[in-house]
From TrEMBL:
Name of protein: G patch domain-containing protein 8-like
Domain G-patch span(s) in chain numbering: 25-72
Origin species: Tetraselmis sp. GSL018
Domain C2H2-type: 124-153
Basic and acidic residues compositional bias, start-end: 43-56, 98-107, 161-181
Amino acid sequence: MDHEPTQALNTDGISIASLDTPIPDTNIGYRMLQKLGWTEGRGLGREESGRTEPVRGGESAGLRFGVGKAEEDSLYTSEENITRRKLETEAQLEETEEQARQREMKAEHQEKIKEVVKEEMSTFYCELCNKQYKTAMELETHLSSYDHHHKKRLQEMKQMQSERTKGERQKREKKRLEKEMAQMAERCKRARQQAEQSLQGGSAGGGGPAAAAAVPAPVPEQRQAMAFSLGGGARRGGMATRGARGGGRGAPGPKPGLAAFALDSDSDEQ
């Protein structure tokens, strides 16, 4: 590191490698290749297909680019790549009738080919797994795979479960309908018995249907309790109301005059 050059390098006894001057036999790499079986003038590799001449580039090869750069540049600057490619609609506007007819025939032919291929490929389609295969061997391999059999068993299990739940649901619906029919029959029976009892009670009172129709409507209990809310009148009024309720079907209800008289008698006693 302390050495300082005092004069230019003397290259008189030094051989400088170049594209025109091959590597001498005194070179270490040259001798190593000879030990590996290489002979001068032949390419490298088992089949000796390597290059025997160095790759020239730059100004020595008449180019101003690197290796392969000139070819890439000429590709991008060629006339067919400079001009924009016409769209399908633009090409159809400029084509003749014969070209249009040929284009339509070609399109129909392609569609027919696609339909035939689709029909043929449908034989290699697994609907259960929703998978499309190209050959029969691929389809057979899939049909014998664990994935396919697992999905098949899962589908069968779902079908069995749905049938079981459907049967249970039908049984529950049948029981519910039977219960509703029994309740309806019970209500009809009770209504019939009440009607018969009312008819028998009316005939025993001596009025028949006319007597049953002549029974006055019961007075609401809440209004009678409010009318007798002073002193013992409320108690007597409540007793009168209970008596009116328990008097039977043919008994007349309490009269307003009697209730007023009971209130006056209570005030006189006080």
